[in-house]
Amino acid sequence: MWRRPEEQRRRRRGRALPGAVGALCRALPPRARPAPDTLRRARFDRPQASLDFWRLLYALLKQIHGGKWSESDAIDNQIRFVKSALWYHGYGRPELYQLPSDGSAGSRELLLAFSWLLHRLSLLEQLLARNRVKTGDETSVCTCEDDLPNSQKGTTEIAPEYGLEDRVDIRYLQWLNGRLRFQWRSLHAQHQEQCKLLHKIHLFTSGSHMDQILGHFSVTETDLLRQPENCKQLLQLLESETMQLEAFLEWKQLEPVYWQWMETVLDNMAEEGSMCKSQDAHVEKSGLPKAASCCAWADSLTGQIDRLSRDLMTLRDQLHELVTHRKAVWCEKVKTRDEELQKEWFSATARKAQESVELKLLDLAYLCAPEKKKMHGSCRLVFRSKHPASKTGFGRSVSKEPVSAVSATEVIRELQMREASLEKELKQLQEECRQRLDEIAEGLDGVICISP
Asked: What is the C-alpha separation between 160 and 209, in angstroms, rounded?
């Protein structure tokens, strides 16, 4: 009798599972919305679901990283990007990185990776924030510290299969650096031009908006006034976003059902893994025939190994003598060089200590300053004709109460202080590297280093 309540709960979960999976799929962006059957097939590791899951993860991660993507991209490129992006975010399950590059298998591993992204990165929340319909003019503001994400703290491993080659031509790196600088300057010039056009629109439409807090039209609103036929397209986008938000609310109510279902997936994988281990152990116990009975040349091989061992011992003794001689020569050179460096050491140490103290004092002044709320994300641009500077506000709703806003000059001033601190730290690191290179160069006989 005591099993009946447990069975009833399982039946209720089984009936609620299709609703949870369906709500999850509808909450995803329209261009990356899988069929609920894809998740169900992946639970049983069906190969038919593998390609669909690779494409799903490719589309979602591309949107998270703000990159352009197309469904016609080669599948091997999609798989390579997904593996690299998952490693970047800290996904450490090695079975995923061992999946074939043609997408022919591994749907259950991909289901696990997808669920990990849901939980670890708040995937749905990020996608909803990135893909929301923007009717106002916004800009990105970030005054946070440049710390590594939590998933990257303490990890120094190389990305599996996708690290750099053994050696990279320094000229290629210099070319990449120059190309990056050129693109950064082009982007900055385009952003300045965009700011000028936004200022013109805000200035010319000032006082025309029904919301007295905003007071002016945005680019989208101005375009709708010029081309009213675009209202239908905007309305369709808003309706699609509303349906997606409704599906997200339904998903939040049924989310525990999904994670209970994923627990059963993990249990099945653990059972299959234990079965494979037991089969491997059985094969090992059966054993292979001994080498002496199946290899007639075992005796000759043993003699060759003995000869190699004697040769290695002889080489080791010779190498030891050579190292001892070289070490004595280097000790003499170090003694003479140490006497010369004693004179220069005090001034160099004092200069380094002074720079370190100045940097720490700057950091201390920054930490002791009145703590301000760090800003991160998109802010709506609101033009204020009564003040010399523009404002960026966080409010988007129509209300009579003033929204929380911050002056653009305050943000610029804070970013300039952060830039000065980073430049000082960069110069200090460059000086330390230069001194280290000088020390290495002085130990090389017959080598002349010319600074660029």
From this structure: 54
